[in-house]
Amino acid sequence: MSSSSKLKKNGVVLSVVPVRGQSERFISLAVELAKDYRRPCIVSLDMDPMSLTEKIKKAGGDPGKMLLVSIRKSTTPTKLPKSQECAETSRVMDLSMALFRLVDTKNPDAILLGPLTSLTSKNSKMDATKFIHYLANDSRKSKRKLVLVCTKKCLKSSFLKDVRLFVDKVSEGKK
Amino acid sequence: MARIMVVDDEADIRESTKTILESMGHKVVTAKDGSECLAKLRAGKKVDLVLLDFFMPGMSGREVLEQIKKDKKLAKNKVALMTVARMSETGAAQMRRLGMVDFIPKLLDLDDFKKRITKLLK
Known about the structure:
The structure holds two protein chains of two kinds. Chain A has seven helices and seven strands; from the N terminus they run αβαβαββαβααβαβ. By secondary structure, chain A is an alpha/beta fold. In chain A, strands 4-3-2-5-6-1-7 form a seven-stranded parallel beta sheet, with helices on both faces. The longest helix of chain B is centred in the N-terminal third of the chain and has 13 residues. In chain B, helix 2 packs parallel to helix 3. In chain B, helix 3 links the parallel strand 3 and strand 4. Chain B is built from five helices and five strands; from the N terminus they run βαβαβαβαβα. The chains are: A alpha/beta, B alpha/beta.
């Protein structure tokens, strides 16, 4: 089974990537999702819109087919295309507002979100866990695919142990 | 009459659960988080059932459950999760493997809540 069909099969997936090359793996998951889904939403918790768009293009993906949520940096232009949203930080409140503006108006059929550890740098573990719990249940209810990305290193953290309780499958890629 | 410990960071939930359980004739002790729950159990508080919230500051319900089951003196305590958390099938199975005896939705249906508590205490 290819890794993209693995992603297609299960509702909420935790995709575990190696620490080294984690950004590249995240981008390649985004490109894979775009092959199987009509309108995927890519939520990067550590990239600004410019680098997210550039990296997707470089990996052979079409950012125009995707909805993008990223983190605002000082160089981020104030006006973004309608398919893009920026969160001020990876605080759950900012992120949630940016993400659900796109979910409510553009109706993505898949969401890729990561790296999960960035959530706990600006939020308490409880708030970060509640956010993922809400997102997982909303995705199931809306029959939307959800792929959460974390590194192998943080898999044993208490936050990830809680997150694993909400996912249907943990997938460890080949790379 | 049974002795039940209610562990929840939300005071309203803690107190309303306490009131309901006391109306059923049970003796109730409360804890505002996982640390207080473990401290009370380690101090020798005897209970027949621990009702544990999942989303709590500090330790989550899973972590508290793990701590209880790891501690030889506490491991025999019966622990149920009383929560709004909806886990996946694999997640629920994992919690059962850790030793959780039931998932009880947080006071959504009073009759169902009472029935489940009575069943768990048999």
